[in-house]
Structures are given as C-alpha cells and as structure tokens.
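FORM 7B - TANDEM STRUCTURE REPORT

SECTION 1: FIRST PROTEIN
SEQUENCE AND TOKENS:
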Amino acid sequence: MRKKLYLFSALAAFTTVFSMLQSQASADSTDVDLLNYLQAQKDYDRLHIKNKELTALRADINNEKFIRPIDPSKPAPIIFEGNNISYNSVNGDVYAKGDVKITHNYSRLTTDEMSGNANIGDVNIPDKAHMAQSGDLTTGDPDLLLNGYDTHYNYNTKKGSMENAAGSINDKQIKAQKLEFYPDEMIIYNGSITRCPAKVPDYHMSADKIEIWPDDHMVAYNAKFWIKNQVVYKKDRYITKIGRNAPEDNAGIPIHVSYNSDDGLHIRYDYDKDLTDKINAYINFNYYTKYDLRNVYGIKWTQDKASFRTEYGYYEDGNDHWIKKEPTLIFNYNTGIGHTPYSLGFSSEYGKWDDDIKSSWHRSETVSLSRAPIYLGSPKVRLYPDIGYTWTHESYDNSSSRNLYYDASVLYDINSRISAYTAYHYSRSTTQNSVFDYDYDDYSKKVTAGISYKFDDKNRVVIANEFDAGAGMKTMDRDYYWYHDFHCFDMELKYREKRNSWHVKFNLVHW
C-alpha cells in the first residue's frame, strides 16, 4: 500500500533564477530596427515557455491542494510519498523506498530511495534523483528539471548539493560535476551552460566555477565560450547581469558573424575588462574579408545617468559610409524629467575624424527631448516622438552648422502575425551640406514604412521602404528580409533591391 507523510518546514526548495537576455539593434536606413521588439518578444516567449512535465506537475499539486486544503497561514508542508515509509516520531528520522516523491509548494523530488530527518530538515538521496519545479515569475522561482546523484538538501537552512547534475534551469541546459544550493545563490562546479537544447549543443559556455545570484548577476571563473568543439573566447572572470536585472542589450556571447556584398564576411569579436566598478576597457575586433581589420578600442566611465568614453577605430553607418576616429571623446547624459513621460538627453563629442579623403577635428553637442509612447486609441498603435538640436564644428574648412531634427514613429500590431511601422524624419543637415557623409541621409525629409508577416514560429518576412518626402515620395531604398529560427541560432537574410546587395547575419540564441 502506498503511503504519504506530511511534514512542515519553512522551506523554499532549490530556488534560483538563471536568465541571460540578449537584444542587438543596428541602425538601418529603412528603420527596420523599429520592429526589433518582435524578436525581443519571441525571445521572451522562448524563455518562458512551459515544459509539459512542469505543466502537469503544477496541475497535480493544485489538485492535491483542492483535495486536502492547506492553511496558508502555516508553513507549506513537505509531503513524502512512497511504497514503504517509516517515521520515528521521537528523533524525526524518515525513510522511504519505492516510487518516492518529496513535494513542497510546486517543487518535487523523485527517486527510488531516500533517508532524512524531519526535525532538522535533512533529505539524503544516495542514488539518482529527479528534481522538477514549476516556476513563478511573480515570486522569482525558476523552472527546474534536473537529474543528479548523491543529493543532499536541508529544508531549514535551504542549503544542499547534487553530484553529476544535468538538466535545465528555465531555458538553459546545464551540466555540472557538482551543484551547490544556498538561500540566495547557486554554485556550479566544473560545468557548462547553453541555450541550445541539442544533445550535442552547437555552442555552450563552460567554467570551473559559476556563481549565480537570482535576478541579479552571475560570475564565471575561467570561462570558455565554445562553438562545437572549438573555444572561441576565454575570460578569467566573466560577470554578467541576469534575470530581471539584465539589460536589454546583454548579448552574453562576444562573437558575431555576418556577410554582405559590400563588406564581405564580417567576424566581430568583443573583449572587455572591468578596471574598476565604474571603468571598463574594451576592444571590438572586426575582420572583413574586403577590408581586413577594422577594430575599435575604447575605455568607458559610467556613473548613474552619465557616461564618458574615449574610442579609436573604424565605424560604419546604415548607408555604408565609413569613418575613422583617431581618437574621439564622447560624453552622454540622459534623465527623465520628474514624473512626466519625457526624457532629456545631452551628448558631446570631440575628436579627429578621417574618411580617407579628408581629415578634420570634429566637435558636436546635441540636446534632445523624447517622450514615452503615446497610445493612439489602443496599445496596439503607438507613437514615439522626439526632437533635438545639434551644433557642429569642423576644423577641415572651419565651418559651423546648426541642425534641427525631429522624428515621429508609429508602430501598429495589426494581429498576432502582422505588424507595421511608418516614420517621418526631418534633419536640416544632410550629406549635401556636411563635411562628412557618416550618419547623414542624402536629403532632409525622409519617410520610412514597412510591414512584417509571421508565417509560423520559425519564419518571418519583412518588406521595408525608404522614401524622399521632398521629391514626391520617391522610393530610395526597398529591402526584403527573411528571419529564420534554426533552433540553436537565428538567421537574418536581407536583399537590398535598389543597391542589388545581399546581407546575412547569424545570431546565436543567447548563451
């Protein structure tokens, strides 16, 4: 006869969150980057998709709560089930064998045999154990599916360990020679992490030791990033923010691969090192088959809403204009205006610019005002306005210019498959009246428009257009995009009709 034993303790079973989010955006003349939120939403859905086993687990536990209601004012019980259970009410020893289940809240350990002590909250599983937890975003509990051996856990101290562990934490596949659990963190020893669920992952990160603080940060020691069986990046101490604390542009993996007809194959390799808690040095290695190396070197200081950096290297805009800065100094400050939906920005740059034809000491200051989205009758239709003013001086011809610019972008989610955008841009400065073409359009009044259609979860296409509003809406650019999910990496294929050029970019699906 199967038996069930209820024991109470102030436990929060193996609780940790592991999440690394990445969102990369690049400026484009047709404003297709306005649709980047669609990929961000897909990444979010991928992160929070529910496993069938965990869905069944939550339903089973909810059903048990319905049959035997639990007093919410008391600590959640630890429920022991097994074909054979013994419990010593004097010293608290517990033993169970045969189809053993240990359940607490929405977490469950299953095994064939266990021993422990209810008084001190110990559970010991010498053989194989399976741990499943249906997470909750509101409480920060992650989804867990782990298999391991020699598992020990104390429900009072919330400390434990598991040997030779493998499984998943949220959307991460992990392996560890040893896992250690603490009230506020989890430590992986001699382990690996990847978002690629294949049996032999296309990519992963390995480390001697990984310290994880839920929804805060992760530290990996002697970290190595792998593509297949090849190490592509190493770092003695790798730190990244995770979970809800992670910034939207947290890329995780420092290597990126793309190709286009103008530049050829492009391999970007990012390296950075924290000099202090506020100062970071970095190198963006860029290899192009048509240009060879075009690197960017920099050092950056960050303090709350302000940042200051100096950089040296090559830069390319969305219209294939190149500039070399040797070097440049850049200051940025952005802040919200009280409790209003408006934000104020200020930036200043001073440095030597070179485009292979001319060289100039470039100085510019920009003040900008932007607003949080305005809903046009529905959250599905959103307007994003901003306005700014720039002062520029060039030593090349001792010229000074003042540039008023303003932008208005509208996004419209028509239904679950179709989204569209349109934008109007005005800039007094253009390639026609500026010393450098870099980061300028050929005309002052520009309209962009595009539409996205999702065929299924793996395929999406976009048509994006750029028009000269000052020349009767003449079509200046028309680009076609195909986004495809290859399970462990994403591909972006682009054809630029007016330029007859092809571009392809591969993104690993967040390490």
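SECTION 2: SECOND PROTEIN
SEQUENCE AND TOKENS:
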Amino acid sequence: MSRIKEFNLPDLGEGLTEGEILAWLVKVGDVIELNQPIVEVETAKAAVEIPAKWAGEVRSIFHPEGTTVEVGTPIIAIDTDPGAGPVPESTTAAASADLPTPSAASLAAVQVAPAEGMVEPGLIGGVAPGGRTAVLVGYGPRNGPAKRRQRKDGPPQQPATTPRPTAPAQVTTPVPAAPVAPVSVAAAAPASVAAAAPASVAPTVNGNGRAGGPVLAKPPVRKFAKDLGIDLATLTGSGPLGSITRDDVQRAVDGSTVVAEPLAATSPTTSTASFGADREQRIPVKGVRRLTAENMSRSAFTAPHVTEFLTVDVTRAMKALDRLRDRREWRDVRVSPLLLVAKAVLLAVRRHPMVNSTWAGDEIVVKEYVNLGIAAATERGLIVPNIKDAGRLTLRELADAMTGLVQTAKAGRTSPADMSGGTLTITNVGVFGVDTGTPILPPGESAILAFGAVRELPWVHKGKVKPRQVTTLGLSFDHRIIDGELGSKFLRDIGDFLADPEAALLAWT
C-alpha cells in the first residue's frame, strides 16, 4: 500500500460541486495529526475548515490559495509513514501512476532555459512539488497522453515518433514564417536569416521577447495579473527567456515598470475622459454571492410574491426591553429589539400555522417546527442561518441562540447545516437605517418579515400627538399558500405583540 495518500476535496453538504481554497493552514514539510484542520475552503454557502483524513507529513500542495477546485479533485498529498525513511521509487511511481506522460513532441515544444538545461519548474511539462507533472492551475491530471496546442506562429508540430531536429546553436525562438526580424537568434545563426526581414517592418514585442508570439508566464502569474487587470502583453519580462514574473506584474501595478509599446507611431494623447475597461472593475461571481443570486432569481420568478406593510408604535416594547436588561439574570445577555420581533413571529405562527409551510407542487407541506432564519450580512455576502426548532425555546434560550448565530456568521464560520432547512425568515434592515423593504422569499419558505429601524416620530397617543418609538414591518409571502386575509392577520398579530408585549403574552399563552 502506498505511503503517499492524496486527499480529495470532499462534498461539504447538499451536493456542492466546487469550493475555493481560501487559506492553507499547513505547508509542505509540516507533520500533521489526524483530524487536524489543514485548509479553509469557501463553498457556495460558507467558509469551512477541512480536517486531515490521515496523520503524517505534508508532501505536496496541489492548488494555491484562491483556486476554485471541483469536488473529488486531489488538493494535498500526505506521507502517512514519514518515519520509515525516504519514499521508495516504487511508492512514488504508484502514487503518480495516473498522471499523464507528456509525448516527445510536447516536450520538444517546451522552451528550455539555457541556465537550467531543463523545463522550468511550474511550467507545463515541468516538475512540481512532490514529483507531479505541473498542470494548469485548477485542473487535475487526466488519464491518457498529454496534448499540446500547436503554435500559431511556428512550424507544424512533429509526430511523437519523429526525432527532435537539431536546431542552430543557441537558437531559443523559432524563426517566424512571415518576413519579420528575428529577436533571440545568437550570433552563430546564419547571417542570411537576419537579413531576411526588411528594415521597415517594426513588429510589436510582447512580454516574452518574441515578435507576435504568446506571452510567456506561469499560470499563477497569469491569474495574479488577471485579478489585477494587467495585460501581460504590455509588460517586458525579466524572467528566463523574457518570461513575465510576479514581480513584473507588481511593478506594473506600482507604476514603476517599463511597459512595452508598439514601435509604430501612436495617436497623440487627448484630455477626453476614458470610458473603457481601465475604469471598470470586474468582480467574479462565486461562493455565497453566486448561491444568493441563484436562489433569489429562482424565488422571484417562481413564487408569486405579495408584500404588506404595518407601522407600529413600539414604545412599550422598548420599555419592556429596558426592564428586562435590568434583571440580574439578564445582565450578561445581549438583548435587542430583534429578540422581541423573533418572539412575536414565533407566537404568531402558533396562531396561524399555515404561514410556516412549503409549496410542494401538488400539495402544501405545513410544518409543526419552526427553523427561524435570521438574515446576516457578511463580508462574503448575505447568508441566512437558522435556529432549529426555535418555537420550543424560552426567551433566554432564544436570545443566546441568536447571539451565537450572529457571531458565527460574522466570523465566517457558519456551517452548511446551519443554513439549510429554514422554514421562516426575519431580515433586520433597520440596522442599516432603513425603514422597511420588500424582501424576497428564500426558496422553500412561504413568508419573510422585514424589520425596519425604530425611530422617534410624532404619533397620536391617547388623543394627543406625542413623540413615540415607531417602526415599520414589511411581510412578503407566497400567494399560492397565503392569501391576503391570512397574511394580514399574521402581520397584525406581530404588530400587536410589539405594541404591547405583556398584554399579548397574557392573551395568547
């Protein structure tokens, strides 16, 4: 049995197909223990830490941070018996038996750095950590012979059975078929080759020092430049064979690099404002944001939404919260108006169970449990973790559960299980100073309540206009399940509780 074991990215729940590597918690050479967290991965629902399946020594890390990896793809190799000495060649060969072997033609097409005499580590066909064949970032090796795309500016690729032709001394770049001036031909090359190009032709030299050829850069450098919006073709490389390095890209960002420009005359600069890509930012849609977009689009165009609003005088509720905070057993508990809103929703569901249901095509599923979702805005986007069976909790238990839920969400540690199975949701838009909104239903739920900001406003109280604490509630519901009467009664009960919590508790419980 091989000592070297490759750990594949697991399915983290509910059929997730990919994840982005946020941070490696170990490095090559580290000795790790069983179930030790080794990598932090962001899925479409949350950021989670993945533990090691085996104890041992880290031999290889296959994907850098920031790479999106499909489920089932190897991400790390672990030597499960590092104390047994060097890994035998047979073991290494067995661990890499499934890796493709580059053909002779593909190896011949790879440019060789004169200083090293071999393919530069990290390039396609080169050696990567752990003895693997380097591949493009984010793609694992596949069975079968390696294939290389034919160069557009060079001669046709030779069959694998044809010996590699002998090139002129120190020629590092094939001479283009078109009559353009060669760039990297050494002095030993025939003089007629250099004289073949007319002096009037001035080709654009790109980042690898070749006329019209592809830019030479490692895949991580390409990704780094793409994320920063840098066009590699405009840079002059300082690496082997004129390749673009990470430092070249960074200098371009800092404005301290010499950018390669065409030798042809350019149009004079003007003061006209630019409206092109140089003044645009492109943000990849992935992870939590992609899942939110898919869910909202599906819900908005599947469930017929209706939204109703209710403005409530919550002065008595705010005073009740102050009295609650003064009690000895509640002094260490986080008490907020959202706590009373959650309690009001749970009590109103008892009076109107149909609100807590799901449309299932040919039937309506009414649920006797309430998994109460609390929408939370995080750095990675909007998530809606839920409190399981919240209707069974006391007010103190509900307060503790909400505090833990919000803290976990802000820390980015919410698990996929905590965000699945929700039945009813509250979104607290009031924390942003907004009065209310028309929230979109989470898929599978029939109602969502928006809780607006609590403001001091003039209000008619006992026949006189007085300053009172006022808020506005917005209830969106699925009109296939909840008609106007049921939705109005449910919203009215929530408002009645917030207007006078003590009286509502005495009347309903």
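SECTION 3: OBSERVATIONS ON SECOND PROTEIN
The two ends are 65 Å apart (CA to CA).
The chain is about 25% helix and 20% strand.

SECTION 4: SIGNATURE
Preparer initials: ____
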